[in-house]
Write a structure and sequence with these properties.
Length: 138
């Protein structure tokens, strides 16, 4: 059997995000889920500094837990439609069928590689509150 390398997710833009789970349970997301549509308890950060500040807010003893979470959310990347800027239009950069689990206990935040969703760039039916025009990622 010849040795061959298979390159996964070789086309499209790639990015690195930092993720914090502010919920009370682990959240698992699959390889082809649109990151902007995942559980609201996952907060995305486009730079490590913002993620570090959010982690500090989540452990601030002078704030109640709801205040800690609100402070972390203010620092997180806006998930609204921003074409070309992760997490909008991006998914995990993992092999098809794989997934990643995000635990609330992880600190520092998980660093993940993400890749643009390809094909027709349409993601219908993932969230009930999603407007019909939001299935088009372009």
């Amino acid at each position: 059997m010849p040795a061959t390398d298979h390159v996964l997710n070789s086309q499209g833009a790639k990015a690195t995000l930092y993720v914090l789970n502010v919920g009370d349970r682990a959240i698992q997301i699959g390889s082809h889920i649109h990151l902007a549509d995942v559980n609201e308890d996952l907060l995305f950060f486009t730079d490590r500094n913002a993620a570090d500040h959010a982690e500090a807010a989540l452990t601030d003893p002078q704030l109640s837990r709801p205040q800690q979470i609100a402070a972390a959310r203010r620092l997180a990347h806006d998930r609204s439609k921003t074409p070309g800027q992760a997490p909008w239009g991006y998914r995990l950069d993992v092999a098809p069928g794989d997934s990643k689990r995000f635990s609330p206990e992880n600190s520092p935040s998980d660093k993940i590689d993400v890749v643009e969703i390809g094909g027709r760039r349409r993601v219908p039916g993932l969230r009930k509150d999603k407007q019909s025009g939001d299935v088009d990622l372009d």
